[in-house]
Amino acid sequence: MRHVVVFRWNVGTSPAQVAAIAAALDRLPAQIPQLLSYHHGPDLGLGEGRWDYGIVAECADAEAWGVYDRHPAHQHAVIEVIRPHVAERAAVQIGSPY
Asked: Are 5 and 90 within 8 A, CB to CB?
């Protein structure tokens, strides 16, 4: 399954703060074995109605996603590093139809 999250940053969020968020996210795959793949980064700005930043996490199933979601390293990144800069967040989990 894939877990997709997008963010809009608070006004005034600096490039240095976004870099700190990226660094925290970069550390997660080494700490959470349930992550089969993990991609994140700023929007490329190729169209209208865009968000500022996105994450795509792939896990084997909903149970593995739950372990990732509750993992202390993930919780630290969310609560301490990301959340203070978030104006809006949206997420979706996509499962395989097969």
From this structure: yes
User: Which DSSP helix (H) or strand (E) runs through 54?
Assistant: strand 53-58
Q: Is the pTM of this model over 0.85?
A: yes
How far is residue 27's CA from residue 72's CA, in Å, rounded to a whole number?
A: 12
Alpha carbon distance 88, 50 (integer Å): 12
For the segment 61-78, what is each residue's pLDDT rounded down to a tens digit?
Answer: 999 999 999 999 999 999
Does residue 96 surpass a pLDDT of 80? no
Q: What is the CATH number of domain 2-94?
A: 3.30.70.100
Structure tokens that stand for 68 in this block:
């990732």
| pLDDT tens digits along 25-60 | 999 999 999 999 999 999 999 989 899 999 999 999
The domain spans of the chain are: 2-94
Select from 71, 10, 11 the least CA-distant residue to 35. Answer: 71
**Neighbouring-strand partners of residue 58:** 2, 37
